[in-house]
Specification:
heterodimer, A: about 260 residues, alpha+beta, four-stranded antiparallel beta sheet, elongated, B: about 100 residues, 2 helices
Chain lengths: ~260, ~100
């Protein structure tokens, strides 16, 4: 499976390469209907399938976390559709660079190439790339380059709780900022709404909740109430506790209900 | 949903509409959606919006926070009986 790689240009224009001694050898140009029989887990994405941006390291006064997305002000993607690679520090230019893409788009490509797991931005995965040639033969393929790894939720309810939580936290974010007396640490957390959401994404994607009954944001009480159909297991509880510890809020479990209570101003 | 509503002595918020039908008309106009009043009191009112798409739910969540006439008490979201749809409950208080 690892000896081949596909380069996705469009559904009707996909290049198949063999990898020999780390270099690409052009083999064929195929269409999406022929992809199912190609057994490779690697797909190179051409530039139109992802976005990248850089910012000066000096403008980021902290080391970005792996899950942190730095360019929320530049992305037009809805949060539930966003997939990104951890920010990469470019020592030569003293910048942080990050790549992101549409999760739906990648999952659509994955549907055409069922064995695909790793989606490499072309400019990250290839070196010695001759742009004048019709194909990428002889370009060096960096097998260990960072890639997108979109995962389709097998649990609709899981997706549901994530989308809701993400959506509502985006909606509710203006309140949250007012619930706290800022410290520098809190500023980092709360001024980046996507980071806040991604905390929940981690929480949710590692949970096997059978379903969300109700999610309530109570502004009067400064609390969030989550009711699920099933009890939370220990791992889920631990994740929620971790989340709350970072937010410095009080957590109360009661069977299939949990309350996150924020400090009052 | 549990919890009491804290009332201020002096409030910049208006009184809620006098009748349920008046409230439904007022909030339907504001949200551009048919608002159904599921709880109606002198100081508290709960609106229910059913079977919303994700986009519509987001729109309402955004819009409900921008109404400065009444104090937003709470917002609840739950799965609708229709697949991939949401029900939203918005509670406002008069003070």
């Amino acid at each position: 499976m690892n000896k081949q790689v596909l380069r996705f240009i469009s559904p009707d224009n996909i290049e198949l390469y063999n990898i020999k001694r780390g270099k690409l050898i052009f083999k064929d140009r195929i269409k999406s209907k022929d992809c199912a029989k190609i057994k490779t887990d690697k797909v190179i994405l051409t530039a139109s399938h992802y976005v990248s941006a850089s910012m000066l390291a000096e403008s980021v006064k902290f080391g970005p976390e792996k899950e942190q997305f730095l360019f929320s002000d530049q992305s037009i993607l809805r949060i539930e559709d966003l997939i990104h690679i951890p920010a990469i520090y470019d020592e030569a230019h003293n910048t942080w660079k990050q790549f992101w893409a549409s999760r739906h788009l990648l999952l659509d490509i994955k549907a055409l190439i069922p064995s695909a797991k790793y989606f490499y931005p072309e400019c990250l995965a290839l070196t010695e790339h001759d742009t004048n040639k019709d194909n990428l033969s002889n370009a060096k393929f960096l097998n260990d380059a960072i890639s997108f790894q979109p995962i389709k939720s097998r649990d609709k309810n899981k997706l549901f709780i994530f989308i809701l939580t993400a959506s509502i936290f985006l909606a509710i974010a203006p309140w949250i900022t007012h619930w706290f007396d800022y410290t520098s640490k809190e500023r980092l957390v709360f001024e980046n709404k996507l980071l806040l959401v991604q905390h929940f994404e981690q929480l949710v994607t590692s949970s096997e909740l059978s379903g969300l009954e109700k999610l309530t944001f109570n502004k009067s009480l400064n609390s969030i109430e989550i009711i699920t159909r099933d009890l939370l297991n220990e791992m889920q509880k631990s994740e929620v506790e971790k989340f709350c510890k970072e937010l410095s809020c009080v957590l109360k479990f009661d069977n299939n209900q949990l309350n996150i209570i924020f400090e009052k101003r | 949903m549990s919890g009491s509503i804290e009332l201020d002595e002096e409030s910049e918020f208006s009184q809620l509409p006098d009748s349920q039908s008046e409230a439904e008309l007022y909030f339907s106009n504001y949200f551009d959606y048919d608002a159904s009043v599921s709880q109606f009191g002198q100081r508290i009112i709960t609106l229910e919006f059913s079977a919303l798409t994700n986009t519509d739910a987001l729109y309402l969540l955004d819009k409900c926070q921008k109404l400065d006439t009444f104090r937003l008490h709470s917002v609840s979201v739950s799965p609708s009986s229709s697949e991939k749809m949401f029900d939203i409950f918005i509670t406002y208080a008069s003070s």
